[in-house]
Amino acid sequence: MNTRTALLDAAEQALRSHGQNGFSYQDLSKTVGIRTASIHYHFPSKAGLIVALIQRYTADVLEALEDLGRSGSTAGQQLRDFVGIYRAALNDGRCLCLCVALLMAPDDVSADGLAEIHRFRAKELRWLERLFAQAQADGTIQNPQDPSAEAAACLALVEGAQINARANHDTAAFDTAVELLLSRTRG
Amino acid sequence: MNTRTALLDAAEQALRSHGQNGFSYQDLSKTVGIRTASIHYHFPSKAGLIVALIQRYTADVLEALEDLGRSGSTAGQQLRDFVGIYRAALNDGRCLCLCVALLMAPDDVSADGLAEIHRFRAKELRWLERLFAQAQADGTIQNPQDPSAEAAACLALVEGAQINARANHDTAAFDTAVELLLSRTRG
DNA sequence: GTCTATATATAGATAGAC
DNA sequence: GTCTATCTATATATAGAC
Q1: With contact defined as beta carbons under 8 Å apart, do B51 and B116 qualify?
Q2: How many Å apart are CA B91 and CA B144, to the nearest integer?
Q3: Residue-wise over B175-186: b if at least 16 C-beta within 10 A, else e?
Q4: Within a 10 A sphere around the Cβ of A108, how many other Cβ atoms?
Q5: What is the secondary structure of A110-132 as a DSSP string?
Q6: N or C: which end of chain A has fewer CB within 10 A?
Q7: Which nucleotides of D are covered by protein (CB under 7 A)?
Q8: What is the rounded distance in angstroms from the CA atom of residue B89 to the CA atom of residue B76?
Q9: Domain B53-183 sits in CATH 1.10.357.10
Q10: B185 pairs with which residues across the strands?
Q11: How do the domains of chain A map onto residue ranges?
Q12: What is the pLDDT of residues A95-108, one digit of tens each?
């Protein structure tokens, strides 16, 4: 196992659980098994580590969404899959989406990091808009409204649902919050 | 002006902007104009300060909701007012609801503080359930579903909308996210 | 690449003078 | 109630040996 990858994995888990200011090189040191000075060899600054983390995470999520878009599934099925991605990210109510976790303290994120996050969220919104436009055509989401309003509401809902779930360390709170949205899907 | 109140005000603003770990007694010292040792006279520990903050904040919000409930307004109007409270709390896209800001790092909140937050959120959900039950009777919210599912979705949505707004330091992002919900209100 | 040792900054908190 | 002075812990980060 690559040390750099192990560090990124440990940092991602810690950041999504405790926020950017909620973990230190000391914590990573214990998890990965090397001294803090050695971590600085791989990632000279914590800000740089976090930018690397954002790049890896957003690339993975965007690839998953592109795969979904190419799957040929109905809009309703893609919406269920999209919600499922955010549900799985919860990790039994302990974690948030990396970008949401970072946006809890936006002033502590480097300018580079923030720019990456904004690019990611803009792409995510465009993906959702395309989804709700498809829904107007295939009819697999009940009572479809303006795609851009639907997309913004959908993203805010799943992010709020994550916060609710982690507040109780309970995935069920997530399910309750998205129940209404999912009940609109047909086929 | 009471020093204790000035400290609470400064701490609330700082916490809602930067999170629990994003402000220090040093910061409060600069804002209020007394030394950090003097702050410890009013609030011996930071954890105690935060519990006091939660108590003041949740009491204020719950009182506002009770006033709304007694106002005799339609369910649609009360929902618009409810969303308006979360919108006003944004403070031009710089702040979150205190409890949401704290739930970003739940492990750093004292057991007392967490208990207060959970009590508050449970009451808020009950208030919303009552609202959506009223909507089924007075018909001022379109297409009403199960009140408890509506309540959970509504709370998650406004909280997610706050995060979206602060990500861009822009209240418009909040408005976009809640547009669909508000468009369901009639009269 | 990883280590020990260390530098530097800042955090929350306490003692005791005024 | 507020101050100066200080304690202790922890943070990010660097220098230089191995």
Answers
A1: yes
A2: 31
A3: ebbbbbbeeebe
A4: 17
A5: -HHHHHHHHHHHHHHHHHHHHHH
A6: N
A7: 1-5, 10-16
A8: 20
A9: yes
A10: B141
A11: 51-182
A12: 999 999 999 889 99
Side-chain half-sphere exposure of A87, counting CA atoms within 13 A:
16
Q: Which of B153, B181, B183 sits opposite A177 (nearest CB)?
A: B153
pLDDT band (50, 70, 90) for residue A79: very high
Among residues A92, A96, A99, A113, which one has the least CA distance to residue A45?
Answer: A113
* Residue of B18, B105, B164 with shortest CB distance to A156: B164
Nucleotides of C under 7 A from a protein CB: 1-5, 10-16
**Residue A144 is which amino acid?**
P
Buried b / exposed e along B130-164 (16+ C-beta atoms within 10 A): bbbbbbeeeebbeebbebbbbbbbbbbbbbbbbbb
Q: Whole-model pTM above 0.90?
A: yes
Please name the helix (run of DSSP H) or strand (run of DSSP E) that holds residue A103, with its range, or none: helix A98-103
pLDDT for residue B2 is more than 80: yes
Cα separation, A47 vs A110, in Å, equals: 6
Burial class (CB in 10 A: 0-12, 13-18, 19+), A177: buried
Which class is A51-182 in CATH? mainly alpha
Residues B179 and A152: beta-carbon distance below 8 Å? yes
Interface test with B, best of A20, A159, A162 (most B CBs within 10 A): A159
The size of chain A, in residues, is 187
Chain Cα centroid distance, residue A130: 19
Half-sphere CA count of A70, side-chain side, radius 13 A? 6
Amino acid (one-letter) located at A77: Q
